[in-house]
Amino acid sequence: MSEYILHEDRYFSPVESVRKIAHEIYNSIKNLPIVSPHGHVDPAIFSNNKSFPNPAQLFFIPDHYIFRMLYSQGIPMESMGIPSIDDSKVEKNPRKIWQIFADNFYLFNGTPTGTWLDYEFGVIFGINEKLNSSNAQIFYDRLNEKIKSSEFLPRALFEKFNIEVLSTTDAASDDLLHHRKMKKSGWKGRVIPCFRPDAVTDLSGKNWKTSLRLLEESVKFEITDFKSFIRALGERRTYFKSLGATSTDHGVFSPYTHELSKREVSGIFNRALKKKVTDIDSRLFTAHMLMEMARMSIEDGLVMQIHPGAFRNHNYSIFEKFGPDKGGDIPVKTEYTFNLKELLNKYGNDPGFTLIVFTLDETTYSRELAPLAGHYPALKIGPAWWFFDSIEGMIRYRRMVTETAGFYNTVGFNDDTRAFISIPARHDLARRIDSNYLAELAVKHIISLDEALTIAEELTYKLVKKTYKL
């Protein structure tokens, strides 16, 4: 097999004048610490600090970017070893799973997943070949040998990756056991929780009552009405803060915000307790809870994130068999100007409030989000997210946002990943894309080289620390 080494010019412009400056900018930021303020890495891996089980469990099983592509080509989820929730039989042999992955690795050509994996294999693990059917088991053995060594334990990799801080995402009722264990262990790595109450603020969820019971157990009192519900959420936010949390996160279908009267919201909550809510009730309750979360953020200082615009679990048969987050979430058209008006008019001018808004509808970047962030002091635009965390997605983001909102109404980069091993790959890609974008501006004399170097450091490190209060 021919040697494959990542090109030092990757993702940079073929125009020599741009490429030269892009290299200079990139070299100034490439070794800055990684700040990962929003993601879904399991904190247990750092708490337990045990060797990863095998390459399939490390690279494949937790990463829906990977198995959704294979599923799109007709490969059954069962054969890929994706755990089922209905006790269906799935493949357990990690070597067989890895072989399927290798047989289909070509599917990732031209995708962000392909660029991340090339970095992971080549830079992190030092394997200078392309994965394919014939070398699959050699790859597996080499990777397996490395992940069994002390240098590839989770905490060692955390330090090797130069991660300054990493935020997980945790349910409101979570006991944060692993965060407490890390703190007690004396390990210096900074892994902090993020408060995500979706399971109890979304009344349409079929497990809402179960989630509410878990919330009751966490606060050790019965939740009988809306007042006690709000008290419980407030106590949990305080608990999260005690373990380092600086932000909340809200995954909603729509960013619609609306404040209900006490009578209205209490009535909806009481109907929910009796399992008699309507779709309209659920929509209004979520809208009201976004207002409540904004109010609480002003009181306790937690940064508020809104991730709207995903039609979750579009493939219902996969959801029923394998659960959520299995690659079946699809972006939908989203509106922000009217939906956020009530929240921004009440809280958007408050200097103590920070609201970071993400989108899966790119048409809103220049039409709505950039103008809103370019006016309201509280509002910042989250980076290109999920389906657009890619080379072209990041470029489109910068081109559509910068002229109206500037760079300083954005919040740098976050990787939003479940796959811990992909974090440095994702950040390296983002640093290269930003370097190239800034180089283009410098070559056009829109900004100077000194300004480009300053902005690069802000986008890579300073803005994310400032905005997320890290």
Can you describe what's shown?
- By secondary structure, the protein is α/β, with parallel strands linked by helices.
- It is 49% helix and 8% strand.
- The protein starts with 15 loop residues before the first helix and ends with a helix.
- The chain has helices at residues 16-29, 44-48, 55-60, 64-72, 94-103, 112-124, 136-147, 154-160, 177-185, 198-201, 208-219, 226-242, 262-273, 279-300, 316-322, 341-347, 364-373, 391-405, 423-443, 449-467; strands at 34-36, 163-167, 170-171, 191-192, 195-196, 247-252, 303-308, 310-311, 330-331, 355-357, 379-381.
- Helix 1 packs across helix 20, helix 6 (112-124) packs across helix 19 and helix 19 (423-443) runs antiparallel to helix 20 (449-467).
- It has two domains: 16-49 and 164-467, Alpha-Beta Barrel (TIM Barrel); 51-152, uronate isomerase, domain 2, chain A (Orthogonal Bundle).
